[in-house]
Amino acid sequence: MRQKLLLAVAATCSTLGLSMAAVAETAPQEAYEYRSAVMTSLRGHIVAASKTVRGLVDDNGFLVKHAEGLANGVAEMDYIFQEGSKVADSKALPVIWEDEEKFAAALQAAKDATAAFV
After folding, report:
1. In the predicted model, is pLDDT for residue 62 greater than 90?
2. Separation between Cα atoms, residue 68 and residue 35, nearest integer Å
């Protein structure tokens, strides 16, 4: 019974996820708000990791979680800086869209650095 329920829930979630992905187009404002949330999360992980590494707070086993959070957030950068997602409130630098090679290189460096930190 429990297995059937889990399978049904998994199938429903998969179907809904695929349906939503196929139908949904992200509006520029929504993309901006999502990007802001990811960047805020990254800022939190950076501050917490920095305080831990500098010995200002005890690690308590959470430093690796903050490092993983940074790596996960940086992995999303390809997605969160989509063309057309720069809106009036955005503080994103124009170079992100104007010099794709430079941004890609900086992004790869960030991915490498966060992977090494983990």
Report:
1. yes
2. 18
Reduce the secondary structure of the chain to three states and give it as a string: CHHHHHHHHHHHHHHHHHHHHHHCCCCHHHHHHHHHHHHHHHHHHHHHHHHHHCCCCCCCCCHHHHHHHHHHHHHCHHHHCCCCCCCCCCCCCCHHHHCHHHHHHHHHHHHHHHHHHC
* Predicted pLDDT at 63: 96
Distance between CA atoms of residues 79 and 106, nearest Å: 15
pLDDT of residue 31: 86
Q: Any residues with CB less than 8 A from the CB of 80 and at least 6 apart, and which?
A: 31, 34, 35, 38, 39
Query: Measuring CA to CA, how many Å separate 55 from each of 24, 42, 50, 61, 82?
Result: 45, 20, 9, 13, 37
Per-residue pLDDT tens digits for 98-115: 888 998 999 999 999 999
Q: Please state the pTM of the whole predicted model.
A: 0.71
